[in-house]
Amino acid sequence: MSLFQKSVEKKYLNDLDTAVIDKKYADFLKHFGNPEIQENIRNSKEEQYQGEFLIDLFVNILGYTKNPTPNFNLTTELKNISNSKKADGAILKGDDATAVIELKGTGTTDLDKIETQAFGYKNHHPKCKYVITSNFEKLRFYIQNAVDHVDFDLFNLTREQFSLLWLCLAKDNLLNDLPLKIKESSVLQEENITKKLYADYSKFREAIYTNLVKNNPETDKLLLFKKTQKLLDRFLFIFFAEDRLLLPPNSISEIVKQWADLKEKYDEYFPLYSRFKKYFGYMNTGYNGKKYDIYAYNGGLFKPDEVLDNITIDDDILYEHTLRLSNYDFETDVDVNILGHIFEHSLGEIENVQAEIKGEKIDSQKTKRKKDGIFYTPKYITKYIVENTVGKLCNEKRTELGIVDEEYAKGRKNRKKEIVRTLDKKLDDYRNWLLTLTILDPACGSGAFLNQALEFLINEHRKIDELRGQLLGGAIIFSDITTDILEKNIYGVDLNEESVEIAKLSLWLRTAQKGRKLNTLSNNIKCGNSLIDDPEIAGEKAFNWQNEFPDIFKNGGFDVVIGNPPYVFAREKISENEKEHYSKNYNSADYQVNTYLLFIEKTVEIIKPKAIFGLIVPNAWLMVYSGQGLRKYLLEHCKLNQIINLEGYSFEGVNVETIIILSQKERIENNDFQVLLNKGKEFVYSHSRNQQDFTKNTGSEFKVFLDDESISLTRKLISGSVDLDSIVQIKAGLQAYEKGKGNPKQSAEDVKNRPYDYNCKFDESTYKYLDGKDVGRYFIEWSGLYLKYGEHLAAPRTFNLFSDKKIIVREITGNYPQCIISTFSEDLYLYNRSNIAIIEREGKNINLKYIVAVLNSTLMSYYFMKNTAKSVRKMFPKVILKDLRLFPFKEIDENLQIPFITNVEKIQYLHKEFFDIRKSFIDLLKSKIDLEKFTNKLLIWYEQDFKTFLGELTKAKIKLNLSEEAEWMQYFNEQKEKAQTIKSEIEKTDKEIDRMVFELYGLTEEEIKIVENS
Q: Which ranges carry the TaqI-like C-terminal specificity domain (predicted)?
């Protein structure tokens, strides 16, 4: 795995002082290149050599000063800040660790095994940026996270590799954060290359397609577009292959040059495309020439194609674009990860063009691919999922076979032949088992997960070779195993034909080797509808898993399923026929259909008993009503291993927050699983839950973010309480516009033009109209909108919701501890579904002011955060009707409600005063000063000092003279003091209401602290 972008790395390496590198490399070889010393190191235990190792490498070579020498910047056994565990070493900047070092003996051959331990130390040192792990023979270096790293074989380090070691770890470089700067430059360079290459790639595709349509009018446009993509795939493979020396260098540019020379110098013309077709033929069948040979890579990409073999393309199109793309260095500048992003972007564009060809309307704001809920998954997520699915099975198998690294590190010397044979056979058994693993992505897209699984398996086979090398001695011979992995381990399905072809191409690019045929992959990567096997519903895309993969299902199904299935809601894009099919065939389609729910169920259906899966799905699934069928199904058939909350944006352009679910098809009673949270690109343990607890919830809700403390507190809140909906009525606001609704029925134009909206009181049926943002905690700040009420509205609701006493609850919630935003009102306001109404229930002596006090409290925010589906979102968290109706409330006597009522009346009055002071100040400012737009700081003038206030006026090019300044200063300070006094009184009253609510629910001081610090 590459830590730096190659061209950026090369630039920094070229800046190194060669004389210094030569000297230090010579010193390095005297120790780490000495065979006798190497043997002694191999025979040393971890404790015997770890202190000396730090001196031999970090002090003597890399220039650090080790404790206890004065001004030291290298120390041993650095204790964690928050517990008693210690890293073996650390590099210090002042008193803070900037790098932690974890060491093992040479018997630990697999440095992956100590990665989690090392990062555990890093996470206990807030300013730590680097992690170094080593077994004295190998050294691994990480920056910030475990997504990528660089490995150094210290016993076989070349001068070039030593230069990179020096660049990363030399004292002056690391303490000045040069490695981090190189990584940041690499990320920027990759982004720039990705954008530029994609722009050129996209222009090439557009130019070829347009030209093909012009030159081949008799051919179907959609077919021509598909062939355009195939032609681009061919060119891309050749660009990649020629820069990685699988083909003669500069093949494409040489073809173009020869073609131009023949035309200009010898007046010999033939179409440029005919020359490229000949080269494609060489790629398919092979070629032996005088100057160079071309191997028959084939794989299906270059086999004869009736359409591509008979089309015509203008010379200038091919000339311009092939030369432009051939200028990229596909060896150093463009790696397979960059291509992965390009492929995924490309799929979105492909689907838009296809829709256009079919005459479908294109949403300019979203590509069809994004509307279909499909996104490129970041590497740190694919890596984690693969390591905790495929990797988990591998760890279990190694344990079952008794493969222990330290036993192989002992070698064969002075050991019985039978022991050596047994150890060697274990490696054969493990390799044979590895080649039986079947790994599937059922919605594979451009192949991000499949490529990650491929990379993992290649590394696993390399580890076998390394263990065998240690056991038997001699040079390590790495097995050429990629062909077997592609044919036996990797499987994918996608609805989109182009996705399938691009997934194949991405796998070819990652595994292509000089002189070796490409795998066909057609038997492994297939196009079809993973969810529907009925041709009457899905047509030619109907996909019967047992028929498509008969050998796998003879063995009971797949071993591993991984992926990021599409999130498509039934109400948006699923036909009635599809809905009916899903309802008949899936447990998870018993309410609202969403494709990701179906994918999870299909996954469980097509895997073996005890097989494992790791999928990314929306986090709302944990508790939403539509997910209860699937949750019950999983609890009956599977054991959960981990649920990881991916807070905020996980994928570029996605507005759905997600979780990772890692689970196995195995029913275990009282199964505990881990809940993890993401911290940047790392996942950290939060707490454990027992999945049996979820069976007790009404809808089998997975309340995974409740730990033991919050479970206990939630039970306490519910005990002796009633559902809020039993003592009041809770209703949705009106819906003004919807096509086909209202009397007369509204048109699409009505929905677009909003004819019943006004900015003044138009007539007697026009009323003030609130949007969600107009509602605050204990106040309303009406933005000036009006709406004409009547049956012409899509869903007008009953008028008493707006005219009577009510609580208005804003649907979009606030930040903790003030999540619930609601206010009591007796004024007539219309409001839409971005607000929820609470009105009195007949026969209940419950004052709405008591309800709003409890609802706005910190305690109810705590309950909301821990117990509702849409509270866990960082993007637009919501309180919804169903959840609000279940809030636990105390049904208390009228006299006990009085203190709450009094405080609500007080706080609402204070808010009105606060609003009046703020508004009068702004109104005066507007009347005295000509300002088009007020800055945020001017709008919250009461939070500024007078100097800042003047500064904001100056920014707006408003200049006051000294007399005006003095007058404004006095007025500003007087009004600010009044505003701050009222604000303080509001906060004091808020705290008093919180105290009363805590007392009402009987919380102890310790429990109150838990709520307040949550």
A: 768-888
Q: Is 148 helix (H, G, I), strand (E, B) or coil?
A: strand
Same domain, 857 and 945: no
Domain-ending residue, one of 176, 198, 221: 176
What is the domain count for the chain?
A: 4
DSSP-derived pairing of the beta strands 293-294 and 287-288: antiparallel
* Crossing angle for the helix pair 858-867 and 848-855, to the nearest 10 degrees: 60
Residue 373's pLDDT is 38
Q: Is the dihedral of CA 485, 490, 496, 502 positive or negative?
A: negative
DSSP notation for 224-252: HHHHHHHHHHHHHHHHHHHHTTSS-TTHH
Provide the β-strand partners of residue 687.
Answer: 675
Tokens of 600: 């999870």
Domain that holds residue 922: 902-1012
Residues pairing with 678 in the sheet? 683
- Same domain as 257, residue 335: yes
Cβ proximity of 124 and 90 under 8 Å: no
CATH number at 822 reads: 3.90.220.10
- Comparing C-alpha atoms, which of 107, 7, 112 is closest to residue 391? 112
Burial of 519 (0-12, 13-18, 19+ CB in 10 A): buried
pLDDT averaged over the chain? 90
Report the C-alpha gap between 487 and 519 in whole angstroms.
Answer: 7
What is the pTM assigned to this prediction? 0.83
Cα gap 228→208, rounded to integer Å: 7
Q: Across residues 223-243, what is the average pLDDT?
A: 91
Q: What confidence tens digit (pLDDT) does each residue in 813-872 have?
A: 999 899 999 999 999 999 999 999 999 999 999 999 999 999 999 999 999 998 887 776
Give yes or no for a contact between 271 and 315, defined as CB atoms under 8 angstroms apart.
yes
Residue type, 520: T
The three-class DSSP label of residue 605 is helix
Q: What is the 3-state secondary structure (H, E, C) of 667-726?
A: CCCCCEEEEEEEECCEEEEEEEEEHHHHHHCCCCCCCCCCCHHHHHHHHHHHCCCEEHHH
Confidence of residue 964 (pLDDT cuts 50, 70, 90): confident
